[in-house]
Amino acid sequence: MTTPALPNIDQLQELPLTTPPFSYLPQTWGWLVLLLMVLCATAWWALHRWRRWQRDRYRREALLMLEGLEHSLSDTAGRLRGLRQLPVLLKRVALSATSTAAVAALSGAQWQAFLTTHARVPLPEHFATRLFSLAYAPDAEVLGIGESEVQTLFAASRTWIETHHVAV
């Protein structure tokens, strides 16, 4: 009786991969046109988003500055500086948004009308008057403004900066 030879692992051979029964390439030029249209639409959307992001850079910078002003309200000297800088910040945002020299000359009722017409949400009724008093009132009067009114002013300013409408 003879013992059969055990198979050796070296005798195994790798099986060749079979070719698929179909081609991965599209058979008609319509698929290529569709792919090009999708790529063009994606490129247009990306360019549009990038331009909007570049255009709204002044908003991001203004919101960072507003956040810094809010943090400075904790001590007395910083509170006075923060309250004095709020109207300046809003005027800078308006100048950046519209790029017209006519905005620089606005004050009082005209400034309130400008802020209201460019806001997407209603502003407090005497918002521009309070901004005027923040800019020009004596230090004691500015420091005497209540905490709730200061928070209301800062919240309205933040909302206006985030949502104001700019004609493109």
Which characteristics define this entry?
168 residues; mainly alpha; 0% strand; elongated
Describe the structure.
The chain is mainly alpha-helical and 168 residues long. The protein has a domain of 107 residues. Helix content is 64%, strand content 0%. The chain has seven helices and no strands. α2 runs antiparallel to α3, α2 packs antiparallel against α7 and α4 packs across α5. The longest helix is centred in the N-terminal third of the chain and has 27 residues. The chain is elongated, with a radius of gyration of 33 Å. The mean pLDDT is 86.
What can be said about this structure in brief?
This protein is mainly alpha-helical. The chain has helices at residues 29-55, 57-71, 76-98, 108-118, 127-136, 139-143, 147-163.
What's the helix and strand layout?
Layout: H1 29-55, H2 57-71, H3 76-98, H4 108-118, H5 127-136, H6 139-143, H7 147-163
Helix pairs in contact: 2-3, 2-7, 3-5, 3-7, 4-5
Arithmetic mean of pLDDT: 86
The number of helical elements comes to 7
Give the H and E element order: HHHHHHH
Query: What spatial form do the alpha-carbon principal axes imply?
Result: elongated
Q: Using DSSP, what is the number of strands?
A: 0
Q: Structural class of the secondary elements?
A: mainly alpha
| Helix content percent band | 55-70%
Radius of gyration: 33 Å
Which spans have pLDDT < 50 for at least 5 consecutive residues? Answer: none
Strand content: under 5%
Note the main sheet.
none
* Alpha-carbon distance between the two ends: 97 Å
